[in-house]
Amino acid sequence: MIFRILEDQFAQKSKEAKAADLRFMQLALALGRRGLGRTWPNPAVGAVIVKDGVIVGRGWTQAGGRPHAEVEALRRAGDAARGATLYVTLEPCSHFGRSPPCADAVVAAGLARVVSAIEDPNPDVGGKGHAKLRAAGIAVDVGLCQAEAAHDHAGHFRRITDKRPHVILKLAVSADDKIAAYGHKPVAISGEAARTRVHLLRAQCDAILVGIGTVKADDPLLTCRLPGMAARSPVRVVLDRALRISGDSRMVHSARETPLWVMTSDLAEAPAAVKLGAAGAQVIRVAASTPQGLDLPAVLHALAEKGITRLLVEGGSRVANSFVAAGLVDEIWLLRGPDAIGADGVPALDAMPLDAIKQSPAFRLRASEALGKDNLNIYERA
To answer: What pLDDT, on the 0 to 100 scale, is given for residue 306?
Structure first.
């Protein structure tokens, strides 16, 4: 009887400990998401330090990629970190980069345990951080909330393994699957709640990409227009094989305030590139695949080389079609408005039906929600 009571008490404590681990890791994940769009080329990591059930330090990767989350949490914890547990959303780094290894800082702080969500695929780390911690006598548990961490760090993982950013395609379509009126004339499709959500998504991405057709038709700014978040605007990227972007466009005029990268052919005329450079834009030359467009894998590789980990593709229909057809889309945000545009409207994916996404085995529905009168479905690569 006594043994049964002790076993029940142990099981209850174990259950409570697991619940506490989950709660603190979920907090670390939430903290890490604060850095999305701001930490590239580094991942947006979150960290929480807990001692005797009390949070004594927390941190997330700061703008520009440093300080790292673990260092921030240790700084805030101070001496209270000794003997405590660190919850971190990615394996602590073990190599010297632009800052010393986080694993060394964790060891020096005297932590007793580290709960790490997932191993870092970076070959400079790749299990070495966890090994260094264990060699120092620190208990290390790996894998808690691994799926959530893999999603949050998808940009970092994709850049390391595939040499390209994680690509998110955003489509705002009418009730009849159109994105614009006849002749590519802009028309309001989404309501205020949906537009707010899209601007938050922009702030969580490193860069946003459109084709030159969208620039010429809409003259967009592509900035984050949420109150107080203008500084969170992503790098603006334009696919412009022949450098047709006008020097009078709003993006060129604002290139010194919000970065503008123009991806063009290696055959594009130099004088146009010089003018764009003088206006503050950066011209990046890549191989042209056809007379109509650029080689998308080469574009993505060039962006990854410059540190971009999360890329939001916003338009237009031909660009969206090209990314989907090339198998280069990892996540799709499909916003559907309540009103129809009509048979002469512009299809969302050019000649490709939207069922190519919704019924494709390559994608699965991850989440759905209502945003006012609009509906949002988020698909991810299966």
So the answer is: 97
Residue whose C-alpha is closest to residue 310's, from 37, 50, 60, 72: 37
Contacts of residue 15, defined as CB under 8 A and 6 or more positions apart, other chains included, come to none
Q: 267-280 burial, b if ≥16 CB within 10 A, otherwise e?
A: ebeeebbeebeebe
Q: Hey, is 122 helix, strand or coil?
A: coil
The contacts of residue 227 (CB under 8 Å, 6+ apart) are none
DSSP per-residue string spanning 272-312: HHHHHHHTT-EEEEE-EEETTEE-HHHHHHHHHHTT--EEE
CA-only gyration radius of the chain, Å = 23
- Which residues are the active-site residues? 70
Is the Cα torsion angle 330, 333, 336, 340 positive or negative in sign? negative
User: Can you name the residues that pair with 347 across neighbouring β-strands?
Assistant: 178
Please provide residue 99's backbone torsions phi and psi, each rounded to the nearest 5 degrees.
-145, 160
Strand 260-265 vs strand 282-286: parallel, antiparallel, or unpaired? parallel
The whole model's pTM is what? 0.93
pLDDT band at 11 (very low <50, low <70, confident <90, very high): low
Do residues 320 and 349 touch, judged by C-beta distance below 8 A?
yes
CA gap 221, 260 in Å, rounded: 10
The CA distance from 101 to 248, in Å, is 47
